[in-house]
Design goal:
Blueprint: H1 2-10, H2 15-41, H3 73-106, H4 110-125, H5 128-138, H6 142-151, H7 156-170, H8 173-180, H9 185-221, H10 233-240, H11 250-277, H12 279-284
């Protein structure tokens, strides 16, 4: 049994898994870039009001149909996805930075580690959506409130992972030797901790992204997020609910499906990158 365990740990990387991983990264990247570029190229004239063509079902002319003001739903959906992706990038980046800083603070001394651990347990023990809504409301709502709320509620899981990595690095031999040579904690963090944490930070940021987008859409849909003038997916879905009873199913179906596709693509990209960074994890996947 021991020999079999050792052979699993030391076996060479499975090249078929590597090819599937690279194919997953390329597939997700191409589709996401296509969605982002398409959304950025859309001009305001493409989503102008046209009352003569309102509430039209999906057709070759309007693949996602039109809404109650005659606006093309495909164009609105792509524009909303771009806005939601922008919010997701900003909030996920902020959460990643918070997680990194707290993990480095935890390595300072035992008291700092207790405080960081208490903060992580506190945020993980509270209902996520409720905490997000309260922080967003306290921060003034709107774009700023949503970004602050998302940033302050999505760091705990990544911070817990980074904290465990930093504590292991703190007791490593080369770290002890650096301290014996008189190197300061700041130098050790910059030269020993950060290079090791960069892969975890990249993968953590990518995997945080789908959760951030979904929670932004959720609180916006509930009316606690972005203003109604904002072209976000949550706003589109919220407005569409009033017209479902009239049979305009496409107003909510296609934006919701597009949101799930984007979230799934980012999740696929993140998991593929994690397998690529960690070969043994890739063999288990």
């Amino acid at each position: 049994m021991k020999a079999q365990s050792m052979s699993r740990k030391t076996r060479p990387f499975n090249w078929s898994v590597r090819r599937r991983t690279v194919a997953g990264i390329l597939f997700a990247s191409i589709l996401l870039l296509g969605i982002i570029i398409s959304g950025l190229l859309i001009q305001t004239d493409n989503i102008a009001i046209n009352l003569e063509g309102k509430n039209r079902a999906p057709s070759l002319e309007h693949l996602f149909g039109t809404d109650w003001l005659g606006r093309d739903m495909l164009m609105r959906t792509l524009k909303g996805l771009i806005f939601s992706i922008g919010v997701g990038i900003l909030a996920a980046c902020s959460s990643t930075i918070i997680a990194l800083l707290l993990s480095l603070v935890a390595a300072w001394n035992k008291l700092a580690d207790r405080i960081v651990t208490w903060l992580i347990d506190l945020f993980l023990s509270m209902p996520h959506i409720v905490t997000l809504i309260l922080i967003s409301f306290a921060a003034g709502g709107g774009f700023k409130g949503v970004v602050i709320g998302l940033s302050l509620t999505h760091w705990p899981s990544l911070a817990r992972l980074l904290r465990s990595e930093v504590l292991q690095l703190k007791t490593a031999e080369y770290t002890k030797i650096s301290r014996q040579l008189g190197k300061r904690e700041r130098w050790i963090a910059r030269n020993h901790f950060l290079p090791h944490l960069i892969p975890q930070l990249i993968v953590g940021f990518i995997l945080l992204f789908p959760h951030v987008i979904l929670h932004e859409a959720a609180i916006t849909f509930l009316g606690f997020g972005l203003s109604t003038e904002t072209p976000a997916i949550g706003i589109i879905l919220s407005e569409s609910m009033r017209y479902l009873s009239t049979g305009a199913w496409w107003l909510a179906f296609f934006p919701g499906l597009a949101l799930l596709v984007v979230v799934g693509l980012f999740d696929l990209f993140g998991r593929s990158v994690r397998k690529f960074v960690d070969p043994f994890h890739g063999q288990r996947g």
